[in-house]
Amino acid sequence: MLPKVVADSVGQYRFVAFDVETASSAAQSICQVGLACVDHFGRIDTFSLLVNPRCAYSPFNTQLHGISASMTEDAPDFAEVLLALFPLMAAQPVVQHSTFDQRAVNAAAGHYGLDAPPFAWVNSVTIARKAWPEWLGQGGHGLAHLKKQLALEFQHHDAGEDARAAAQVVLLAEERLGRPLVEALVPKARRVSPADAAR
């Protein structure tokens, strides 16, 4: 399920940016996940997976991201996807833009009777606010506004593209402030070593 270059590099990335799209307004209805894996040199490996949400699609959501039931009927469900992604996502901080992605993952895990995964979640909105406080109240720090201000090129509401954009926001913020920001925001209790993640 994981591209070989990514599967072979578990524990070698600095952080992984993560994004989901959902089939409806229900947080657990994940129909696509996207990951942007950032190494210690700033290189980004990006990929996305379709997910069968095991529920009906909302026409609004399909119009937003272009994913329909017919596209995901043969895709794995979230329980299978989480099992495959766990070693990668547990090995380093997981960056999300806002907190919706964490809520969706936890809701989907609960829907399948699984515990909420103990990932070290970091919010790239918080990072963007540190780097560009002048945009608070002047367009804000959502991806749409950051896309315009930072001249980012990505297709909004595609999970892989949004994950890559979140990763780029972090790297640009760190460049602007001249220091790493992700590690400083990781809750100490949530840190998992690569060796533990591989068990």
Q: Could you describe the 3D structure shown?
A:
With 199 residues, the protein is α/β, with parallel strands linked by helices. It has a single domain, classed as Ribonuclease H-like superfamily/Ribonuclease H (Nucleotidyltransferase, domain 5). 39% of the residues lie in helices and 15% in strands. The chain contains 9 helices and 5 strands. It has helices at 4-7, 59-65, 69-72, 78-90, 100-111, 124-131, 143-149, 159-177, 194-197, and strands at 15-22, 30-38, 44-50, 94-96, 121-123. A 5-stranded mixed sheet has the order 3-2-1-4-5. A hairpin with a 7-residue loop joins β1 and β2. α6 runs parallel beside α8. The radius of gyration is 16 Å and the shape is globular. Residues 191-195 have low confidence and may be disordered.
Provide tags for this entry:
alpha/beta, 39% helix, 199 residues, Nucleotidyltransferase, domain 5, 9 helices, 5-stranded mixed sheet, 5 strands
SSE layout and pairing:
Elements: H1 4-7, E1 15-22, E2 30-38, E3 44-50, H2 59-65, H3 69-72, H4 78-90, E4 94-96, H5 100-111, E5 121-123, H6 124-131, H7 143-149, H8 159-177, H9 194-197
Parallel strand pairs: 1-4, 4-5
Antiparallel strand pairs: 1-2, 2-3
